[in-house]
Hints:
Chain B: Residues 1-23 form the signal peptide. The complex is a heterodimer. By secondary structure, chain A is an alpha+beta fold.
Amino acid sequence: MKLKFALSLSALFFAGTLFAAPQVGQKAPAFNLTDSKGQSHSLADFAGKTVVLEWTNHDCPFVVKHYSGNMQGLQKQFGTDDVVWLTVISSAPGKQGHVTSAKADELTSSRNAMPDAILFDETGVTGKAYDAKTTPHMYVIDQKGVLQYMGGIDSIPSAKVDDIAKATPYFSNALTAVLAGNPADPAVTKPYGCSIKY
Amino acid sequence: MTLFLRLFFSAVLLLLATGFVQAQTSGWVRASHLKAELVSDHQDLKPGQRFKLALHFIPDEHWHTYWQNPGDSGLATSIDWILPDGVTAGAIQWPAPMAIAVPPLVNYGFEGPTILVSELTVPATYKNSQLVIKAKVDWLVCKEVCIPAEASFELNLPVTQTAIEARDYKKLFEQASQKQARPVSLQGRYDVQNQKFSAVVQMPEDLKVSAFFVAAAELVDHAAPQEIEWVDGELLLRQQKNTYFSQAPARFELVLNTLAGPVLLQLQHEGVPLAPELSLADFSLLDWLGMLVLAAVGGLILNLMPCVFPVLSLKALSLVNSKNSAQNTKAEALWYSAGVIISFVLLAAVLLIFRAVGQAAGWGFQLQNPLIVGLLAYLLFVLGLSLSGVMQLGIGWMSSGQQFTQQQGHKGSFFTGVLAVVVASPCTAPFMGTALGYAATQPALAALAIFAALGFGMALPFLLLAWWPGFAAMLPKPGLWMEKLKQWLAYPLYLSAVWLLWVYGRQQGLDAMALALVGLVLLGVACWLWGQQQLQQAGQVSRLIALLFVAGSVALLWYPQSAAQNLTQTDHAEVWSEQRLKQLVQDGQPVLVNMTADWCITCLVNERVALNTDSSKAAMALYKLKYLKGDWTNKDPAISSYLRQFQRDGVPLYVLYWPGQPPEILPQILTPDSLRQALEQLSSKQPLITSQ
Lengths: 198, 692
């Protein structure tokens, strides 16, 4: 019976198909997106720098939670020349979180945010390539273009600002480790928040 | 401030403002797109009781809240209880979830009115006359957009001497349990490899699973297609692994949507031993006491079963033989009882260990091992030779430990008890199926107590005999007839040995049985030599030769195990298989399933007197009944799991399938009329429509 079980399990595994999900330790999916200033950016442009991708939707309560100061603090803390912080909006036109360039810039200044660019991904191609599911959803890509971290911003999935201080800051820890040349630990965590409105 | 934030804060303010105290219900708390109340199933509580609280959500149309695994996004509802000292609350008993597609993502949650039940326990030592329950609840309600909320609920319930149910909310709690997945005792394992989540659930009968929900978060890619296949008594599940999967939990809940509604089971990780984790929460004291009584009665009846009879006759003879004082008789009876009870408990412990290591061991498993069967046949044969006077096993003779009897009668009685249990175990299954099935699902200590009760029941007649001298006085006085009786009693033992050899032959084949018979001849020679030696008619050499013969006869049992043989079609039955049964049931055929084993005497008797009779065959023909027979002589995992489906751990099991009716279990002891009566009753409920 054990043998039969083992056989059926291994049969299942060999049938496993290849799946093009992003993987830590592999090249991060390439992208070419236009920012709120009309400038286009591709991942290759940032070779030699550490890239942060932050998926956002300003109306999502989980994003609101972190834009109560936490996100701005991180952008400031890691706002050095070595780090490129890209905020990505994958909301489709007409869906929650979809904004015009002007609105995006207005949000940046009203919230005192300091990303290097706000990228629009209206087709959702880039979001799906990264298997981005929620807002917020964080990625760290090292100088060689290798994905080093993907997942949640911290350990407590809630919409309550109070929980930020109690949570383990997964993303911040990961970025700190990557900047020091170390692997992130954990490198994959549970993303939490609103679904991305593809 | 954004529109959203304004909404959010006003929602929170509203929630705080509307919380008010009232018995049985917290009253409705209105939040944006959802109103909620906390309700008790009791209006009055008493110390030491368990009761239920329901968090009742009514969201706006198309708005949903989330399951314990919310899927790709979202947030499971959480309850933070603030309870007086000693009062405890269990985890949320979730309704069965639904998949909510938010392309390209999928969430697991609930639309429409949703009832989240938690069970609370008031300690027996609770002194206060009031119980104030506070709950801080966090939820996320979403349609396309999501609105988190946090609300406080308060209930104030009187604690008195009598518990009173809250009649107004009875229906609500009934609805809640209807919406929950029904727990089933199916075993399942999973693993995550090569980008795939894969699980195998032992499922003897195809329940027609249309979807599954894993309670573990970040395990499967919720939006990926689910592959569901039922093959050969196993349900195979597959789904793409979640991109954010990091660690495989040891076990988690799995909900299966079946044709008959959602069912709930535990999936274990492949690396984790298959130990049914039983908590005291699953344990009901009343059920357990009832089962103890039932087990004791079952044990009592065991004394009348054919496979106990030889041992019973041994013991009866021994008591008759006894020239001991009443005091001593009591002691003997107690030792015998101890032997019986301890053996039952040991067997139960072995059964529990076997279960724990995940073997599909059923009751009677010691007779599924051919070596044990062969050795038991040898033992009974040697005991028979001793009865026939070929040699003497001490002066009293009772068991393999009998040489102690003369000096230490207690030990002799003890081992008689042990022997009684070993021989009796195949008979316990027919009588104790229910109790055994129950025991096997209980915490280890409770299960052991059940088996101890079984042993107590079996030993009871001897205890009565010892304590009721009047009863003993009714027994005939010792005399010459006893030697005759002793010699007569050899023949039941020989017959038992023949029966065991036949079982052995069925298990191992004709050649192996012939070798075992040669072994019996060798044993016969050895016993004869031993007897000669006892009569001082032979020297030490013959003792050595006798030992060699004994060793040779045991060696003959190491005949290579024959390949699994199929049940030959000896009567009008077809061989049972899960597919065949399924096919017949699907075709709308009435079916009788008979689960049997060669070592199960009750099974054979039932077949002889109730199934293979002309009247039963006529009834089968009249009702166009298909007869499927499964053979459990050697362990067959498919049959083991079929038995478990009916909470049984042993054979016989008779199940009658009538189209349009739930399967009906026939009694374990069949009378000549059992089948015909069951068929008449079922056909009167639902006449058979033949499509001709």
